[in-house]
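re the bet — no i am not wrong, look at it urself. input seq straight from the record:
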Amino acid sequence: MALTNRTGAVSRYGTAAGTGALAALVLVAVAGSPAYTGWAGNHTDPNSAAGWYLRLLAWPAWRIHDGDQGGGVFAADLRAILLVILAAALLYVLPASQVARVPGGFSQFFSGWAAFVLAGGLAGLLAVLLGPGPSMLGALQAAGEGASYGFLSGWVIGVASLGGRA
């Protein structure tokens, strides 16, 4: 019996990187929205674990108008834009199931999670460096905040990456 690789077969599942990128877009679009960030800021207790976590989810906040933010709408939204782009790029660059010693769900989960941690840190760093008034201290602090955000919310991306084709 010959073993064949049917590359022309259509799978009913998306790629792990594609579903992870879609989850990252949805997470940033929903939790970074002005409605959610306003709700989290007004209706959660920052001194409780749940309140702190719900506020953390709003880290990649984006805005519809620039208000008094210097640099306009693009500068205010740079962190959210970079987070989605970098997450998608890193999900495609980190092919866990192809290089992992133990292929399968664990490698897909941790690859998606790790990609989001790296994307969060890089998005924070680059948003400060490319935005108005760049400073190295601000960039390093934002990278730490972004990596924390990615570590504590990246499990969502890891779960979304499960079960997809490599």
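see?? DSSP finds seven helices and no strands in the chain. told u. also Residues 125 and 139 are 5 Å apart (CA to CA). so pay up
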